[in-house]
Design a protein that fits this description.
The two termini are about 35 Å apart. The longest helix is centred in the first third of the chain and has 27 residues. This protein has a two-stranded antiparallel ribbon with strand order 1-2. By secondary structure, the protein is mainly α. The chain is elongated and about 65 Å long. It has a domain of about 80 residues. The chain has 5 helices and 2 strands, in the order ββααααα.
Length: about 130
């Protein structure tokens, strides 16, 4: 007698003559697919709401001192970022390079200065979800 939860699906062997590995098909698969789809939609909605909160009025407030220092370093040319960074700050230059590219594309403004940090914090929502699910 077979387990009512699993149905074995037989198919013709592969052309090479070797039988393919078969996975039992669960009667719960459609329900699990629907659940996974609902989780993806919920994650997308939560991430979009997080982006809305983070990017709304991004440039409304003036820059804080640390943002001014980062912006002034990032406004320089690419070869001068690392020496200035090591003179004023003791940090890795990747964020400053990204900030430099944002200034080149969007111009210098409070919103452009805060955009990379808002993007990184928005991306923490799906990344954290992925870590929790793993």
């Amino acid at each position: 007698m077979t387990d009512p939860q699993f149905i074995r699906i037989e198919s013709a062997p592969a052309r090479s003559g070797a039988p393919r590995a078969r996975r039992p098909v669960s009667l719960l698969d459609p329900l699990l697919d629907r659940h996974a789809r609902a989780l993806r939609v919920a994650l997308a909605v939560i991430t979009a709401l997080g982006a809305l909160v983070r990017f709304h009025d991004l440039g409304a407030q003036s820059l804080w001192f640390d943002e001014i220092v980062e912006s002034n370093i990032a406004r320089g040319t690419l070869p001068t970022i690392i020496p200035e960074l090591w003179q004023w700050e003791n940090e890795m230059p990747v964020d400053y390079f990204v900030q430099h590219l944002v200034f080149r594309v969007a111009g210098f403004s409070e919103a452009a200065a805060r955009a990379p940090a808002a993007l990184w914090s928005t991306l923490t929502v799906p990344v954290s979800f992925g870590f929790v699910r793993a």
